[in-house]
Amino acid sequence: MTAGPGTDLTGPVHVVGTGLLGTSVALAARRAGLEVWLSDASPEHLRTASGLGAGTPVPEGGVAQLTVVAVPPAAIAGAVAEALRRGGVVTDVGSVKGQPLEQLAGLVPELLAAYVGSHPMAGSERSGPLAASAAIFDGRPWAVTPHASSAPEATALVEALARVCGAEPVRLSPHDHDRAVARVSHVPHLLAVLTAGRLAGASTDHLALSGQGVRDVTRVAASDPALWRQILGANRVAVAELLIDVQGDLGRLLEAVTGGDDDGVGEILARGVAGTEAIPGKHGGPVLPMASVYVAVPDHPGELARLFADVGEIGVNIEDLYIDHDPARPVGLVELVVRDDAAESLRTALAARSWTIHR
Amino acid sequence: MTAGPGTDLTGPVHVVGTGLLGTSVALAARRAGLEVWLSDASPEHLRTASGLGAGTPVPEGGVAQLTVVAVPPAAIAGAVAEALRRGGVVTDVGSVKGQPLEQLAGLVPELLAAYVGSHPMAGSERSGPLAASAAIFDGRPWAVTPHASSAPEATALVEALARVCGAEPVRLSPHDHDRAVARVSHVPHLLAVLTAGRLAGASTDHLALSGQGVRDVTRVAASDPALWRQILGANRVAVAELLIDVQGDLGRLLEAVTGGDDDGVGEILARGVAGTEAIPGKHGGPVLPMASVYVAVPDHPGELARLFADVGEIGVNIEDLYIDHDPARPVGLVELVVRDDAAESLRTALAARSWTIHR
């Protein structure tokens, strides 16, 4: 098959590490008709991934066109070096790109041309091959991070892999990538952790007042600390740089709050609003005018089903959906986000079917 | 009607301020068969609320059994004082309790016995009477905050109002309340604002890597800065106290990150996990064992409807629901949270109906 502009990805593809990401890449490559080889330190993971149709165990001495290393952060450089020695182009799918490159420059400096790091933005709180799916990359950004001595054909091949998986390749330098994820992922994660940390040990009476906001802010803080330790350890410099900025922001905020400087607080709040608006919209394009329709849904079996069946019959596409998933309420408030011009007719049609609509 | 244990709430109830909260209280009181009087500085809001069946304009010289003040934070003390002078028991539904009480002690010290503050935990990004609903309080905590000289009958009457609205009264001192909301609402809000603030002005290439995590963490930061200025201004002391704690946490985190102290980072991450677990579960009771079923849903009209119709036919109750609402993906991943013992059969039954299930 042809893999879009650039170099053809014809296979075989060798996936090293059959966790969630590795197995998902393998499934996507199989979906595209490519031959896929698998290897994993855990024979059980390997068997499971093969059983899911993700590929076959790598043959003795086999040299793949492209090897995809999908192992834990601390093991990436070693696994990439081993793959480079076997031959072919090599990428990895780790969350941090600078540190493994540095380590590789020490391990196999003469083979670096065939290595191009990458990072599909398709993480998950789940793990293991059973959580895998070829669909998890669809429409997602996939950072591709060539370094100074990467061969252009190697870069093109990794971009072809991203497209085969349904993702959008985004080319960045390894250094730029690490600064970007520090900002859009690692530091947000840490601020969620600090927020949640201040709830630990708080009195039950106080915690009883928790609403949806604090649940949203702290949700990611429940993720696996062992994995995050490795990620943060590998991206120390960029994370620390931003945390220092945040420290400055926090100092100014505290000064404004204690000093009764409401205008100062207001400026910080306004900057936050601007930040939420900076996050790109659907498919990276301009944000279409959307409107929300709020519907009260009793917590009985089948009620959500009935709502969505009605919406389906009315024929309006739901662009996005939030449930007020505060578990303390027997009646949920469902927010249906639809195209602006469809909202009013959806409200009317749902009300006519006896749903309680909140504007 | 009888309003549960304690003093009978028999009406009339006078609601001052017909925004989202005031109109919702009025609708809930009407639902319980009580006579409800309304007043608002905006004749348009008053007309809209009356039109929704929330009550009738307050009669000249009318004295209600209970007056509920639901006006913006800065106007609360004045409106409560005016209501106390008319007579009857008075409460307000503002987000901060200490400051208005202090102001009232200056305005009407001799009338304070009839005042008991309260705060339903049912905020919203929306506003105005059209967003109101009697359902928004169902199962929610409603803080009731008597002060040292509140009459016990006044406290009982306000707790009766909370129950009439379907909420669970939680009794706290005004001081305790303000410390609690600083922790579970105001400081989480501010950390979301600081996280979002660091996205404003970032390069498009970097922002392109934004995933679901940063969207969750920053969501509340999009709320109205003008309202939050007032809330934070009224709760300066408690907010500042906690922000100083956060400042200490951030300093320790930064030290651990820059010093390569992975164990130190790990401890902070673990404390975050403990914090997420401290948030109470359904109806404040113990958290039942739940399991998640992940389903891939194409972004076409009717697909969600088809999924929920199938779940409804299978007969499993959905306890909670998340959509991977990253708008960048044509295929959404829907997480259905169900009772642990129903998960496996739901997976099997959905797979049999050709849904792609991720474990």
Q: How does this structure look, described?
A:
The structure is a homodimer. Chain A has about 350 residues and is α/β, with parallel strands linked by helices. Chain A has 3 domains: about 160 residues, NAD(P)-binding Rossmann-like Domain (Rossmann fold, 3-Layer(aba) Sandwich), CATH 3.40.50.720; about 100 residues, Orthogonal Bundle (6-phosphogluconate dehydrogenase C-terminal fold), CATH 1.10.3660.10; about 70 residues, Alpha-Beta Plaits (2-Layer Sandwich), CATH 3.30.70.260. Helix content of chain A is about 45%, strand content about 15%. The first copy, chain A, contains 13 helices and 12 strands. In chain A, the strands form 3 sheets. Chain A has a 5-stranded parallel sheet, with helices on both faces. In chain A, strands 10-11-9-12 form a 4-stranded antiparallel sheet, with helices on one face. In chain A, α3 crosses α4 and α6 packs across α10. The longest helix of chain A is centred in the middle third of the chain and has 24 residues. The first copy, chain A, is globular. Chain A starts with 12 loop residues before the first strand and ends with a strand. The N terminus of chain A is likely disordered.
